[in-house]
Amino acid sequence: MNIIENVYVVPGVIANPYIIVDPDGLTLIDTGIPRSEKKILAYVASLGKSAADVKRIILTHSDMDHVGGLAALLKATGARTYASRVEAEAIAAGKPSRPPRPTGFSLTRVMFSLMRPFMKARPCRVDELLVDGQVLPVLGGLRVVETIGHTPGHLSLFAPAAGILFCGDSMVSDSEGLQGSRPSVTWDEALAKDAVRKQAELGARIVCPGHGPVVKDAAGKFPV
Q: What is the DSSP letter of 8?
């Protein structure tokens, strides 16, 4: 689905993967659960591109539903991979950077607990460690935003020129709009709230979460 010119979300994948098309190739943000690579590569083909056109894969964090397709996509594309240091270490070990907090009942948490033994993410390399404030040559300048809370090394990505924010799981969206990271899968709730406030100050017009629909006209809709 087209979000703005040259920015797309791949439909039908758990944990939204986003594709950015630049003259030098494609950037993929997050890779879905294991076996999501088929839908992602089919969507790449629908854009008139090939697997070899995918030059960068950026991981917002190391949870299985965001890195599950990474190993297969690396094999198909040969792309360079990017993540924070904490998340990169977890990705290299094939595990999340933190266990979910066992607080309250969450259908999503229960579902993934049941699925986890059958859908383990394979260990993968990360080629470049990202730091807060770093700017990547993507979408007119894609700024790395440290958004610790959901996980200890979570990153978001903001393109000021396009006014678009890719927030991973630091926020989700539902029928009521943008929400903060769900408590049952949040490493540190206080830091997660700080991450939302930090992102609200960026002035993004469009917010692309890891779960739920893209939020347009996002000013004033941040859960702060």
A: E
And the tokens for 136? 């990547």
Tens-level pLDDT at each residue, the chain (224 residues): 999 999 999 999 999 999 999 999 999 999 999 999 999 999 999 999 999 999 999 999 999 999 999 999 999 999 999 999 999 999 999 999 997 555 555 555 565 555 555 567 899 999 999 999 999 999 999 999 999 999 999 999 999 999 999 999 999 999 999 999 999 899 999 999 999 999 999 999 999 999 999 999 999 999 98
3-state secondary structure of 150: coil
Map out the domains of the chain as residue ranges: 2-216
pTM over 0.85: yes
CATH number of 2-216: 3.60.15.10
